[in-house]
Each structure stands twice: as structure tokens, then as C-alpha cells.
From TrEMBL:
<dbReference type="GO" id="GO:1901982">
    <property type="term" value="F:maltose binding"/>
</dbReference>
<dbReference type="GO" id="GO:0055052">
    <property type="term" value="C:ATP-binding cassette (ABC) transporter complex, substrate-binding subunit-containing"/>
</dbReference>
<comment type="similarity">
    <text>Belongs to the bacterial solute-binding protein 1 family.</text>
</comment>
<keyword id="KW-0732">Signal</keyword>
<dbReference type="InterPro" id="IPR006059">
    <property type="entry name" value="SBP"/>
</dbReference>
<protein>
    <submittedName>
        <fullName>Sugar ABC transporter binding protein</fullName>
    </submittedName>
</protein>
<keyword id="KW-0813">Transport</keyword>
<dbReference type="GO" id="GO:0015768">
    <property type="term" value="P:maltose transport"/>
</dbReference>
<dbReference type="GO" id="GO:0042956">
    <property type="term" value="P:maltodextrin transmembrane transport"/>
</dbReference>
<dbReference type="Pfam" id="PF13416">
    <property type="entry name" value="SBP_bac_8"/>
</dbReference>
């Protein structure tokens, strides 16, 4: 479980290697003496009080400690302590804290970790207003239909393309359909200096997940309503054949360099003028000297729909939280549109609040506009503890398909069988 090769997706991606081989974990049956339940059925309008402990990961954890001064100004009787935890050690630290009954009140949770620790989370209070969040991010915070997480920031992929190179190939607009995308990639491949028409990883960690935009847009559901894996369906065949077509038709070489960061470098130098990317791709392009006038962003081209992968991070209150009331009030504050805009300015991660996207800070940025539109149509991977293992199987089997070692039929039958063998961890 992970949300991909872009920085803000670290929340989702960080869980992958750590979760392989790990089953779901929850709180111990025997709660320590004096522990209070984190289940708050409603939130009152009084200011937060008491001691509040928050864990946050990576760059967000480093920045959050000073940022929460705004919350303390509005809630002067609360004493908030933020602990920053590296993503690399976060999973083990959370697991240990749950087992020992020493959890903080609030934890930042990568969306693909929600199922792993679901038994240790308190449900979102009934009067917590969730109307400002779109369906995809909300669903990423649900386990077995219960809302356990509140979207803090979101991450998704949109299309990036070099407008100057596209123009040389006769394109003056973004592709609107999946068929047009493949045609554009084929056309730009003919331009001098272009080595691959589009950057799609044929192998490596998260390579299959990095193409889920094509699967979701083709109507794929990875599981059915009964919780069974559905990886050998007509929709899966159609989407797999679509991606495989880029390799079989020579638009992309199966020896494409999949080293992290190479996609940005090749996009800038024109070797690979089309890619999908998260919002930090914008800053990465700028950091490597890319010309912002030479490219544009657009929503994922449409198949049955235009649906991209969604990741990011939620906030959760722990079931054994000592101060759940203050915890939920803190999460309310962090997800208010005004706070979300300030947090974007601080951490450059995308707001989960739809209202925040109406602010000029975001609405006035033409490169970010595609994300605001794309976030209206996103889908998360299944909220099960074994997603990381199934995703890794997908990486390996899709590589075998792309390299001609398996047919699509053979590959999807193998993937379905492996997923059934792995199960859901529930």
C-alpha cells in the first residue's frame, strides 16, 4: 500500500515496503488501567482544553510543530505537543504504541495504512461536518464502510505534457480520451530527440499502481461488494491491454530507466515529453531548471470516466486517546478551508477541502487547476491490510506481460490466483 513516486504521496507510498508480509494489527484486548475511550459521538463548540498529543510524519511532522500555534491561539487552554516521526520507522512505532497502550491522541495516517490499524481508531463523530470533502478522499478514510479518518491532504496524478514538443507533433490541446493520449504519445515519439512517447514504468515498486488511472478510468473495480478480488475481468483485460499497447507498439521501451527522479529529468530534456505526476512534480521540474512555459497539466483523459488514483494522509483519533475531545477539535481546525490554504503555503500539499480550491492561491495557478478538477473524480485502492502484497504481485506480473513473458490472459489469471491466495487479511 503506498501512494506512489511523488513526494506528497509518501504518506501512501511509505507503507508499502514496511507492510509487506505484515498482517493487520489493532489495539490489545486488555486496555491499560485508566485509559479513556476515544469514541466521541459529537463535538461541542467549546474551545479545546487539556494536554493534546499529535504524531505526524516526515516533512509534515517537521512543519506542523510551529504551524499549530494558530490552534493554540484559538484554544488558549490547550497544551499541544507534536512529535515528528520519520516515515521509515512510523509503521513499527505505531504498531508498538498500540500494543503497549501508549498511543497519542491524534496520528497522521497514510491512507493505505487505514486498514492495518483500523481496530485502534475511534470513529469520526456523528456531527463532524464531512460535506466539504469529495467522495474519493472520504472513501480512503473508510474501513468496512465506517468513517475512521478525516482527509488532511490529498494526492492524485494528472497528465503532464510538453506543449512545445506536442506542437511539433501537431497537437495544440490536451488529449481528451485514452485513445487520444496513446495517439499523442505515438505522434510525439516521431519528434527528433524523443526516445519514449510517454513515461510509464514497465517495472519496479509501484509500477502497476502508477498506472491505476488507466484502470480506474476504464471502469475497473479491484474488489467486489463482498470483498473478493476481481482482477481477471473484462475491464481489467481492457485496461491491461491498453497499457501493454504502449510497449507492444514501441511507443515506450521496456528498458525504460525507472530510477526515481528520472521521469522528471527526461521530461525536462524532452526525451519523454508526456507523463503523469503528482503536485510536487511542479516544484521538481522548477528545481531542475525546467521552463514552466514549456508544459501544461490536464486531467486524466477519459475512458468510461476520467478517474485518477487518490492518496495522501488522514487524521485519526485513537480509540485509547487520553483527550479525544481536543483531538477532534484539532482535526476540525486543520481541515477548515482557511487553515488548509495556510497549510498548502507551508507544506505545498493539496487541500482536502473542496472550498479551499476556490481561493486564488490555488484557483489562480494554472498548473494546479487540473488537480482541483481531477480531485472531483478519484478512487483509492481497497482498504485492506494486504493491498501492499497484491500491489507488489501486480508490479511483477504486469512487467512479465509488458516484456512478452506472459499474455494478458495468462497474467491476469495469475494475478487473480495470487490475490486470492494472499487474501484480504481480515
Amino acid at each position: 500500500m503506498k501512494h506512489t513516486p511523488w513526494k506528497t504521496a509518501v504518506a501512501a507510498v511509505a507503507g508499502t515496503s514496511l507492510l509487506l508480509g505484515l498482517g493487520a494489527c489493532g489495539r490489545s484486548e486488555d486496555k491499560p488501567a485508566g485509559a479513556s475511550e476515544g469514541a466521541v459521538t459529537s463535538i461541542d463548540s467549546e474551545p479545546a482544553t487539556g494536554d493534546l498529543t499529535v504524531w505526524a510524519m516526515g516533512n509534515e511532522g517537521d512543519l506542523l510543530g510551529d504551524f499549530v500555534d494558530g490552534f493554540k491561539e484559538e484554544n488558549p487552554d490547550v497544551n499541544i505537543t507534536v512529535t515528528a516521526i520519520p516515515w521509515a520507522s512510523a509503521h513499527d512505532k505505531i504498531q508498538t504504541a498500540i500494543a503497549a497502550g501508549t498511543v497519542p491522541d491524534v496520528i497522521q495516517m497514510g491512507t493505505t495504512w487505514m486498514a492495518d490499524f483500523a481496530d485502534a481508531f475511534a470513529p469520526v463523530p456523528e456531527n463532524f461536518d464531512l460535506s466539504d470533502f469529495s467522495a474519493g478522499p472520504l472513501e480512503a478514510g473508510q474501513v468496512d464502510g465506517e468513517q475512521l479518518g478525516v482527509p488532511w491532504y490529498v494526492d492524485s496524478h494528472v497528465l503532464y505534457y510538453r506543449t512545445d514538443i506536442a506542437a511539433q507533433a501537431g497537437w495544440d490541446h490536451a488529449p481528451e480520451t485514452l485513445d487520444e493520449l496513446r495517439q499523442m504519445a505515438e505522434d510525439v515519439k516521431q519528434v527528433d530527440g524523443v526516445e519514449n512517447g510517454m513515461y510509464i514504468s514497465p517495472s519496479g515498486a509501484d509500477s502497476w499502481q502508477g498506472t491505476l488511472w488507466a484502470f480506474f478510468s476504464s471502469g475497473v473495480s479491484l474488489m467486489d461488494d463482498e470483498g473478493n478480488w476481481t482482477l481477471d475481468t473484462p475491464e481489467m483485460h481492457e485496461a491491461t491491454e491498453y497499457i501493454d499497447g504502449f510497449f507492444k507498439n514501441g511507443i515506450i521501451g521496456t528498458n525504460l530507466d525507472v530510477t526515481p527522479g528520472v521521469s522528471i529529468t527526461q521530461f525536462i530534456n524532452g526525451q519523454t515529453p508526456i507523463m503523469t505526476g503528482g503536485p510536487t512534480s511542479i516544484s521538481q521540474i522548477a528545481d531542475q531548471g525546467g521552463d514552466s512555459d514549456s508544459y501544461a497539466t490536464a486531467v486524466i483523459p477519459k475512458g468510461e470516466s476520467s478517474t485518477s488514483f487518490v492518496g495522501g494522509a488522514d487524521f485519526v483519533v485513537m480509540d485509547e486517546a487520553a483527550n479525544p475531545d481536543a483531538g477532534w477539535k484539532f482535526i476540525q481546525w486543520m481541515t477548515e478551508p482557511e487553515t488548509q490554504i495556510e497549510w498548502y503555503k507551508t507544506a505545498t500539499v493539496l487541500p482536502s477541502s473542496q472550498s479551499a480550491w476556490e481561493d486564488e492561491t490555488l484557483a489562480g495557478d494554472e498548473k494546479l487547476a487540473a488537480y482541483g478538477e481531477q480531485l472531483k473524480s478519484t478512487q483509492a485502492p481497497p482498504a485492506v491490510p494486504t493491498w501492499a502484497q497484491v500491489s507488489a504481485a501486480g508490479d511483477r506480473i504486469m512487467e512479465q506481460i509488458y516484456k512478452g513473458q506472459l499474455t494478458v490472459d495468462e497474467g491476469l489469471k495469475n494475478l487473480q490466483a495470487e490475490a486470492e491466495s494472499i487474501g484480504t487479511g481480515e
